[in-house]
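Priority: medium. Attachment 1 of 2:
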């Protein structure tokens, strides 16, 4: 029979073991990279679903060693210099909003199966914003230009519109450039983007952020923190493995399977509901007018459109063999029937609807509502055969960023000259 002394001894031994485990856990955690909510590259936003995490550092794709690493500033933007709300009189301030292409994202999987390009984020200097800033500064050296990258991976035009209302307009921008198209395929197909964000997108981001906070702020004991840390990285490893498996599925694709007849069957429906998307463009422009800001809408370059540059052998293989509608990667829980329907619609919209109807529709709206419109695919049509322009369905090479910036510069040049004159 155990005495009180024996029980006390066992208790103290367990206590000592516990403290030893706590000390070991604390030491191990000190050597491991810190994990906080700020280590995730996006944070939830009550206005535009998500924003870039301030001070987050990206793995940077550089053209040369003199270019800076990408670090998100305190406002959630990419801009290499200090940024104040108030701007100088001889400063022309331009904000670029949009998704991952204008943000400067590198190659997406599984396009690396055909040709491997860097992943990560292009430096400010090599991306569209930096190249546009360079063009402007070289042509108008007497003025200071601030071209601010306010994009984010996955962002849609309605989210950029909300970001403008909640944040960007307070910086008194002279010009807003909306660089969009690929992420808005669901809206173009007639779906309400605000409803989708409310039901699907925002809860997903909120759940992820809450999970991170619960794991690494609510736990007092170091051992529990270490277990959660290892659990998180196991989950990330497992998720990455699942993602690669899903990416392989995108290789089961044939561009020729989507015919003109398939498109004509749904064209009337698309034309009927397209105002779900085009109204957002018009509203964005009208909001900019209130603040004396000029609005420029750009259809980003998209590999799967038929009006396009002269594709290289690599680009043709990418277009013909990989499914550009990669919803299965971000929403693996989606039912197969729903996924198949969305992929079918998305592929048809990309291949036919932009060129047959949508681009002309936005062009006519730009004339009626007095905003600038650029369709990059039309600007590069039948050119640049010697350039690798695309790294995947919409992300760009160094040359791709430079060419887009030059096209935008030439289009807005009269606008800049008019601003300087006045």
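Attachment 2 of 2:
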């Amino acid at each position: 029979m155990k005495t009180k002394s024996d029980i006390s001894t066992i208790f103290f031994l367990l206590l000592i073991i516990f403290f030893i485990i706590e000390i070991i856990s604390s030491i191990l955690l000190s050597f491991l990279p810190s994990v906080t909510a700020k280590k995730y590259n996006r944070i939830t936003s009550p206005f535009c679903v998500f924003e870039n995490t301030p001070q987050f550092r990206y793995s940077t794709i550089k053209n040369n060693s003199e270019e800076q690493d990408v670090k998100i500033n305190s406002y959630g933007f990419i801009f290499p210099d200090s940024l104040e709300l108030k701007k100088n009189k001889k400063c022309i301030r331009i904000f670029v909003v949009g998704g991952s292409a204008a943000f400067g994202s590198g190659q997406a999987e599984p396009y690396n199966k055909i040709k491997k390009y860097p992943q990560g984020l292009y430096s400010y200097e090599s991306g569209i914003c930096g190249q546009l800033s360079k063009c402007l500064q070289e042509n108008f050296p007497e003025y200071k230009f601030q071209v601010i990258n306010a994009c984010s991976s996955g962002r849609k035009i309605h989210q950029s519109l909300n970001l403008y209302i909640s944040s960007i307009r307070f910086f008194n921008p002279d010009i807003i450039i909306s660089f969009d198209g690929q992420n808005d395929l669901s809206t173009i197909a007639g779906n309400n983007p605000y409803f989708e964000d409310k039901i699907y997108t925002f809860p997903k981001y909120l759940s992820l952020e809450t999970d991170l906070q619960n794991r690494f702020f609510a736990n007092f004991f170091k051992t529990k923190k270490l277990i959660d840390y290892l659990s998180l990285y196991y989950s990330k490893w497992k998720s990455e493995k699942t993602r690669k498996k899903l990416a392989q599925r995108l290789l089961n694709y044939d561009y020729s399977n989507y015919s003109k007849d398939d498109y004509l069957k749904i064209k009337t429906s698309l034309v009927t509901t397209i105002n779900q998307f085009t109204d957002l463009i018009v509203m964005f422009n009208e909001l900019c007018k209130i603040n004396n800001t000029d609005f420029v809408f750009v259809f980003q370059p998209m590999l799967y459109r038929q009006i396009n540059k002269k594709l290289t052998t690599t680009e043709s293989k990418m277009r013909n063999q990989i499914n550009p509608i990669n919803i299965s990667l971000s929403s693996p829980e989606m039912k197969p029937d729903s996924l198949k329907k969305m992929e079918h619609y998305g592929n048809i919209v990309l291949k036919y609807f932009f060129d047959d109807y949508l681009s002309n529709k936005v062009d006519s709206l730009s004339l009626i509502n007095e905003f600038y419109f650029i369709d990059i695919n039309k600007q590069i049509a039948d050119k640049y055969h010697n350039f690798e322009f695309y790294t995947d369905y919409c992300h760009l090479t160094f040359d791709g960023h430079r060419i887009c910036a030059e096209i935008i510069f030439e289009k807005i040049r009269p606008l800049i000259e008019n601003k300087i004159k006045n």
